[in-house]
Specification:
CATH class of the largest domain: Mainly Alpha
Distance between the termini: 66 Å
Largest sheet: 3 strands, antiparallel
Helix content: 55-70%
Strand order of the largest sheet: 3-4-5
Number of helices: 14
Oligomer: single chain
Strand content: 5-15%
Number of domains: 3
């Protein structure tokens, strides 16, 4: 028997039984990990969304968590929920869009489980994302990056670990969680040296390692006695309590050395995160003339359109530089406009910037 009955007057999903807890439980514990192959961190983010939804019901609607029913959920309610996130919770557009994406994913699941609810679910799925301004990509130039990597005290055990950590973070262009999840077995130091990263959706990708990073890793593994078979399943990076280094721990390490470097170079970005290291790697590869398809594979992007943001940012920088060096003649025509081989000129100019 169908648990849903369409009520056109109310415009809501009407349930004969309150099956929301069961559907939500199956969605989080079965559908996302088994059918969508989502990582534990992504599922945790989905859980956070529904925790906020329960808080919204309690604070804005006066309904306790044990009395929430699916029939109370419609498009108008979720529009109000998004406004509550923005106004009461002071969430950014990116955060509210992320919460809405979780809600939409849940109702895709609901309509697959109960196709008779498709009409009402489609009203919720049709809720638009908030439009947001795309900020320019923040990344470090080679000098600033080098300055940060010079800060760890290599004479100390922790300093050697931190330098190895930061060098690997940049060299691989990895997400911070991908570095936190690394096991000793993920590293191969014999030629060709490489590291296996587990990205979003538990998808593995292999990234080559540069010689300098290989040297640091070899010394680090030897010093911490991790280069023996029984340690291959150990976390690659640990704290002083021999616990796996977390995302927060990696951010703390980076912030410490970024603050030290800022004393020498006050013009460093106010906030330097592991993701800025990732941006920096992508931009440096692009400036070195690496094909954007290879950059996509290194970063682990599913869609190349995600990687293209770096190409667009790089083009804007080249355009700005071009405007600065272009001398305008009396006829208001750039001096290079008469060049018969403009493509060659621009190519050479691009190489000079890299």
């Amino acid at each position: 028997m169908s648990i849903f009955r369409n009520n056109t007057e109310m415009g809501v999903i009407d349930l004969k039984t309150a099956d929301f807890p069961k559907l939500l439980g199956n969605f989080l514990s079965i559908y996302l990990p088994s059918q969508r192959n989502f990582s534990k961190n992504t599922i945790s983010s989905y859980c956070d969304t529904f925790k906020l939804l329960l808080k919204y019901f309690n604070s804005a609607k006066g309904i306790s968590a044990d009395k929430i029913q699916l029939k109370q959920m419609n498009r108008e309610l979720f529009l109000d929920f998004i406004s509550w996130l923005e106004i009461d919770r002071n969430c950014s557009i990116s955060t509210t869009n992320q919460r809405l994406a979780c809600i939409r994913s849940f109702f895709r699941f609901v309509q697959m489980e109960h196709p008779e609810t498709m009409l009402e679910c489609q009203k919720i799925l049709g809720m638009p994302f908030r439009r947001k301004y795309s900020p320019s990509i923040c990344y470090l130039n080679a000098d600033d990056l080098k300055l940060i990597l010079e800060q760890p005290n290599y004479s100390l055990r922790t300093g050697r670990r931190d330098l190895t950590l930061l060098s690997l973070l940049y060299d691989t262009g990895a997400r911070v969680q991908e570095i936190a999840d690394l096991k000793v077995r993920s590293i191969r130091l014999d030629a060709p040296a490489q590291v296996t990263l587990i990205g979003k959706g538990n998808k593995a990708r292999v990234i080559p390692l540069m010689e300098a990073t290989v040297s640091l890793l070899r010394g680090y593994l030897e010093e911490h006695h991790l280069n023996i078979p029984k340690c291959f399943e150990y976390p690659l990076f640990s704290n002083q309590r021999h616990e796996p280094l977390t995302r927060a721990g990696i951010c703390y390490v980076l912030n410490k050395y970024a603050n030290q470097a800022r004393i020498i170079q006050p013009l460093l970005p106010e906030k330097i995160t592991p993701h800025i290291f990732r941006h920096s790697k992508a931009m440096h590869l692009l400036e070195a003339g690496i094909n954007i398809v290879y950059i996509r594979d290194i970063l682990g992007h599913v869609d190349i359109s995600t990687t293209e943001i770096y190409a667009k940012a790089n083009m804007e920088m080249k355009r700005a530089a071009l405007e600065k060096v272009s001398h305008i003649s009396s006829g208001n025509v750039p001096f290079w406009a008469n060049d018969a081989d403009l493509v060659t000129w621009l190519t050479d100019f691009g190489k000079s910037l890299n």
